[in-house]
Write a structure and sequence with these properties.
Radius of gyration: 21 Å
Structural class: alpha/beta
Order of helices and strands: HEHHHEHEHEHEHEHEEHHHEEHEEEH
CATH superfamily of the largest domain: Type I PLP-dependent aspartate aminotransferase-like (Major domain)
Low-confidence stretches: 354-358
CATH class of the largest domain: Alpha Beta
CATH topology of the largest domain: Aspartate Aminotransferase, domain 2
Strand content: 15-25%
Helix content: 25-40%
Mean pLDDT: 95
Largest sheet: 7 strands, mixed
Number of domains: 2
Shape: globular
Length: 358
């Protein structure tokens, strides 16, 4: 009988709750207003010939590299940030290698590492989700071949200073070190241009969040040219679809649109955190386009009450250290007004008694 590899058989499938997502979608950190009108205009102009041809990725990699201030040899376009993670694992992990994952964090780091039969070394965040630098450094061994860190982190929204992340990368020159900057635009700080950036450091980006292109699946993996060449060897030559490549120049060029939305999210994030404090709900200051809130044992009823009002939020109760927590996506001002009004109603209705943020 045909059987999958033992590493695959022992895995649990990752099934995001995508079904029946009707209402105000504040559960997956997507843009709540969508992509630039220029992107939509370019979409409408696509012809049959464009769709009939295999997509050519390299010209767009040059454009993205120019936009980022890098050389084209330092950039690989991927089918979303997820594929970038997958490619790193495929390029650098052997069975039995170790992958250090600081948790709680994005689930796909561990999933793709397990696919390569690597051993996951989870490092738990410190109190209030502070980055556990000393513990991470103490777990690095000769078998460490991947260290994955999101900055800002998901689901906490917490950010780490660049010098801390660089210290990790320099402590493990034999390992691929990924700093996932999926929420960079809302944070504004990056390691892309760090002085003397280690050759083992990779930076990931996505167009799913601030650019509103989650449905087109396009991301960026950037790093040392020699190492990106190794990752490129395990990537399909047609991994990014023709539609995504066709609209990407318009998305890049319409920076006023992106910046307006980012500024609106940052204002909304500040206001949401103020309202959560006034409701005496425990939250963690975020640098991303979402806020993690501890509701407590009533978290399921809290989510259902919001859903009854047409608002979807994300259950994070099962993430390490996130018991009773829910994640709220931050979006446009009009959507935050709807959320905040609903939060006041739900807290009153359920008589929630949370913990005021310290």
């Amino acid at each position: 009988m045909l059987r999958a590899r033992s590493a695959v058989e022992s895995m649990h499938a990752y099934r995001p709750p995508l079904a029946a997502r009707r209402g105000l979608r504040l559960d997956f950190n997507e843009s709540t207003i969508g992509c630039s009108p220029r992107v939509l205009e370019r979409l409408r102009s696509l012809d049959a010939e464009t769709l009939a041809r295999y997509p050519e990725r390299e010209p767009l990699e040059r454009a993205v590299a120019d936009f980022l201030g890098l050389d084209a040899t330092q950039v690989l376009l991927t089918n979303g940030m997820d594929e970038g993670i997958h490619l790193l694992c495929a390029a650098y992990l052997e069975p039995g290698d170790e992958a250090i994952i600081v948790v709680p964090t994005f689930a796909m780091y561990s999933i793709f590492a397990r696919v390569e039969d690597a051993r996951i070394v989870p490092v738990f965040a410190c109190k209030d989700f502070a980055f556990p630098l000393e513990t991470v450094l103490s777990r690095i061994t000769s078998r460490t071949r991947l260290i994955a860190m999101a900055n800002p982190n998901n689901p906490t929204g917490m950010a780490v200073e660049s010098d801390v992340l660089l210290k990790v990368a320099r402590a493990a020159p034999h390992a691929s070190v990924l700093v996932d900057e999926a929420y960079f635009e809302f944070h504004g700080k990056t390691l892309l241009h760090a002085m003397a950036r280690p050759a083992n450091l990779f930076v990931g980006r996505t167009f799913s969040k601030a650019y509103g292109l989650a449905g087109l699946r396009i991301g960026i993996l950037a790093g040392d040219a020699n190492q990106i060449a190794m990752v490129r060897r395990v990537a399909s030559p047609y991994n990014v679809n023709a539609v995504a490549l066709a609209v990407l120049p318009e998305a890049l060029q319409d920076q006023p649109y992106v910046k307006r939305y980012v500024a609106e999210v940052q204002r909304g994030r500040h206001r949401l955190q103020q309202e959560l404090a006034s409701l005496r709900l425990r939250y963690w200051p975020s640098q991303a386009n979402f806020v993690l809130v501890r509701v407590g044992s009533d978290y399921a009823r809290f989510m259902q009450a919001l859903r009854a009002r047409g608002i979807l939020v994300r259950d994070r109760n099962y993430d390490p250290g996130c018991e009773g927590c829910v994640r709220l996506t931050v979006g446009a001002e009009e959507h935050m007004q709807i959320l905040i009004a609903a939060l006041h109603e739900v807290v009153s209705e359920l008589r929630l008694s949370g913990e005021v943020r310290a």
